[in-house]
Amino acid sequence: MADRAAAAPPPGPIVGARLMPGGGRRGKALRLFLFRSAGGLGLVLVLAAVLGATFAPVLTPYDAITLNPPSRLQGPSAEHWLGTDQLGRDTFTRILYGGRVSLAVAGAAVAFALLVGGALGVVAGYYRGWLDSVIMRFTDVLLSFPAVLLAIALIAFLGAGFTNLVLAIGIVYVGPFARVARAAVLTVREELFVEASRALGARDPRIVWLAVLPSAAGPLIVEVTLRLAYAILAEASLSFLGLGTQPPTPSWGMMVAEGRRFLALAPWATVAPGLAIMLIVLGFNLLGDGLRDALDPRLKTR
Amino acid sequence: MFVFLGRRILLTLPALFGVALVVFLLMRAIPGDVVSQLVGPEQEISPERMEELRRIFGLDLPIHVQFGRWLSAALQGDLGTSLRTGRSISGDLALRFPATLQLALMSLAIALAMAVPIGIVAALNRGRWPDYLGSAFVLVGLSVPSFFLGILLILLFSLRLGWLPPAGFVPFLEDPLESTRRMLLPSLSLGLILAAATTRIMRSAMLEILSRDFVRTARAKGLSERKVTLDHALRNALIPVITVVGLQFGSLLGGTVIIEQVFSIPGVGRFALEGINLRDYPVVQGAVLVIAGAFVFVNLVVDILYAFIDPRVRYG
Fold first, then answer.
1. Main-chain phi, psi angles of A110, to 5 degrees
2. Is B278 exposed, middle or buried (0-12, 13-18, 19+ CB in 10 A)?
3. What domains, with CATH codes, occur in chain B?
């Protein structure tokens, strides 16, 4: 979803100087993104994770849940590339299937945060006034909590489960999305092309959709990518604490917690899922940084 | 200055009120209510007794009255009693707080001790190998989950090398040296991650300052490169770093919950997790309130510090 939007920024009719027709600047941005930054590497890591999770049943002959006690805590071998866990399940298989959970939770949570936070931010920035004040005070309160703590607290009171996990992580990131969207809207709402649409008699929803949103898309895409990295870390942390994904469904954070008890005996059962989390988060971080540099060269981190 | 201080402290009050409101409302998010959770479905209990229990907990009152009572008690330092042990929650929190504070401060010290020199060296060698090495450190640090880093440190320093114990806690006042030794791995787990975020800001702030006119002037009048970097540039580059460290302190406080679990440290975070596992909701509520309150307080301190260092802020 985010990838498609990133590859082809919407060439709307009224987007001002940001995206010139003809694609000269877009071509340059794409090249800059793929070759001049580490964004290309990030894209590869993210794609590898998405493909691995999607085609898990094809990539491995094993099942992620069925127990197989005779082959427990085996080291890496030709049959079990990353060894087996304390219940004899193939670690590589569980990492592939665990990726499904991590990506699904992170994706749904960020989508929730984008929709709710983005909408709040656009409304606040477009209408200003008391609505703006109320919405921003609300996000201030959300941002007054350490992120992981708020998610833990929400889970503690809502209870575990996929939906609650998505909600808990999603609510935490509503604040940041609202701020990014509001800031982006504030920079364009006084532009001439917005005033022109209004003069032509366009209604607010149309103006927001056609003139304001395309300009806010760049910062929001970058925010989505970086928040996906955080959301995966959050899901892993909650699952590590036993508050996230519940057994027997595999999840990377839970695998690290389970493997930990056999750390001296079978370090692979802990290290492999831990590295998986690290690589996918690294992928989203690189992708986000690359996109930011490509979409807004002024902000290029020196 | 006093006007600024007063205004800034007043601005904190709505945030604190909001935090308290959210923490209070969390209690209402429980499926059923505290009494039904406390009693559990397996116990036989008469509806009259349930009503009586609800009255004891004040659940029969209108919600704003409940919030008012809870808030005024909390302001007086009374966070209620644990549903399981019957002990005062504020008392238990006070016992647990020093461990969390020690963990947070040691992590912060490690982060600054690493981030400032690495950031400076990276900025001075922009585009050369020390810079790339610094960037790699930043990226890995921002991507590794704290609990995984902690476990890797245990694997290396406790299981393989046997230098440090894998878990356990000694109060600082009892034996400062042993306490610091045992807290080393936990604070490294959080400190390295905080260092990554800080290094990134340190580097870009340093680059920004080094391109300013006054740095050129300092060089032109013949000051040594060392004096220019450390005296003129560093002092100015630290200003944005302080802000970011302040903001990152929140994630540090959240991180203590996880790291305390990894290393069995009896701090506020572990107290909250124990409360979660026992469905001891008032305990969780109290612990969350204390950590979030600490975060708001740290932000206040950072803003005030900022105004002391940079006089422009006061008049902004």
1. -70, -35
2. middle
3. 1-316 (1.10.3720.10)
What tens digit of pLDDT does each residue of A116-173 get?
999 999 889 888 888 888 888 888 888 888 888 888 888 888 888 888 899 999 999 9
Look at residue A22 and tell me whether its pLDDT is greater than 60. Answer: no
Which residues in chain A are closer than 8 Å to B200, comparing Cβ atoms?
Answer: 301
Pick the residue from chain A with its C-alpha nearest to B255: A148
Phi, psi (rounded to 5 degrees) for A260: -60, -35
Q: How far is CA A99 from the centre of its chain?
A: 13
- Please answer whether residues B124 and B117 qualify as being in contact, where contact means their C-beta atoms are separated by less than 8 angstroms: no
Q: From B260, which residue of chain A is nearest by alpha-carbon distance?
A: A241
Residues of B numbered 192-221 whose beta carbons fall under 8 angstroms of chain A's beta carbons: which are they? 200, 204, 207-208
If you measure CA to CA, which chain B residue comes closest to A261? B151
Mutate to test the interface with B, among A41, A143, A148 (most CBs of B within 10 A): A148
How far is B157 from B164, CA to CA, in rounded Å? 6
pTM to 2 decimals?
0.84
- What is the spatial distance between Cα A51 and Cα A45, in angstroms, rounded to a whole number? 10
Q: Of the candidates A146, A157, A264, which has its C-beta nearest B29's C-beta?
A: A157
Write out pLDDT tens, residues B33-87: 677 766 666 666 777 777 777 777 777 777 788 888 888 888 888 888 887 787 8
What distance lies between CA A64 and its chain's CA centroid? 24
Is it true that the peptide bond before A248 is cis, omega within 30 degrees of 0? yes
- Put simply, whether B24 touches A (Cβ < 8 Å) is no
ipTM for this model? 0.84
